[in-house]
Amino acid sequence: MFLLALAYLAFIGLGLPDPMPGTLWPAIAPAYGLPNAALGLVLAGVAAGYVVAGLLAGRLIAALGIGGVLAASVAATALAAGGQALAPPWAVFVALSVLAGLGGGAVDAALNAFAAARFAPRHLNWMHGCWGIGATLGPALAAALLAGGFGWQAGYATIAAILATLTAAFLLTRRRWDAAAPLPPAARVTALSVLRNPVARLQMLLFFVYTGLEAGAGQWAATVLAARGASPAEGAAAATLFWAGLAFGRIALGFVIDRVGADRMLRLSGPAAAAGAGLFALGLGAPALALLAFALAPVYPTLMARTPARLGAAAAVHAVGFQVAAAMTGVAVLPALMGGAADLLGAGAVPPILAGLALLLAVLLWRLPVKGGRMAA
To answer: What's the per-residue H, E or C state across 209-230?
Structure first.
């Protein structure tokens, strides 16, 4: 249970730095004399590091073990945040964003691989709910520091100190992680063989579509509602409701998912998400976004939890990393395409795209094979 509690804390830590670039950008941009568009370089750096880490996660886990990857990758995120707190030259700041992505992607893959092999789906839902808590606390912490008269560097410095503490915890417990979830014999399972598996490719596509839908709805909700006549405050409140709905949904549904069944929950989530996105496209605002968020909430963690049962424990070590890479690619690509559509056709083009992605998600979830294999409590 100690490792489970540490995993929850680690997911909170994983969520803390994710919103920091955007949250602190109004203070960072003037300090470097940069236009707002330069934020894209930081986000692209994080995304690139995340994707690379996801693709290499299986090999890293095989070489270093779960505990070793966790300790090294959290240390990398702490180092990145600490370096950015020093306000280095802009090129170094961007390079540190890549390091942050490498560390975050490796942590994400290693923790998901460990939890999927060891715990029931409810725990993965609660862990990802903890990520939502961290992603909420990060901006709140940054805002409090700025309001207190501290510079933007203080936000990164505080995150670095928290992550350094987590690094120490992982270093001290490194052997316990590997003992709790020993790696299966993977000599016959290569990364290439996993990529050849049609179920593995289907799950990668699912993660790409899911995260693109989630990020697209969260990022463009306020803009869409503003185009419909809502005030900036109302749009921001609706976007906040969406992210809060994800965190609340993962925590709430974690209490019932083992009774309902993980695969049944996934199949129910698809049509519910399509209904929420469809209502948003038809003109409904915050209630539709809340329904969409609640429906999407269990998808990511439950798909991760079912990966060993669908693909086998040895293949899952690689597959989880590939899924993390596909997820980050979806975050980077699909919301950007929605932005292009909004520039060409207006913000009203975004909700139909969200509805189409939600419908595609529902279809793909129904195509997943249903296999047995109960997870440990």
So the answer is: HHHHHHHHHHHHHHHHHHHCCC
The answer to whether the CB of 310 falls within 8 A of the CB of 203 is yes
Query: Domain extents for the chain?
Result: 2-180, 191-367
28-35 CB contacts, 8 Å cutoff, 24+ apart: 28/152, 31/87, 31/152, 32/90, 32/93, 34/90
Class of 191-367 in CATH: mainly alpha
What's the rounded mean pLDDT across residues 111-122? 84
Token pair in block for residue 40: 């894209």
pLDDT at 188: 59
Do residues 42 and 21 make contact, with C-beta atoms less than 8 angstroms apart? Answer: yes
Q: Residue 373 class from Cβ within 10 Å (0-12 exposed, 13-18 middle, 19+ buried)?
A: exposed
Q: Are 15 and 247 in contact (CB under 8 A)?
A: no
Band of pLDDT at residue 114, cut at 50, 70 and 90: confident
Cβ atoms of 374 and 263 within 8 Å: the answer is: no
pLDDT tens-digit profile of 225-247?
Answer: 888 998 877 887 788 788 888 88
| The domain over range 2-180 is classified in CATH as 1.20.1250.20 | yes
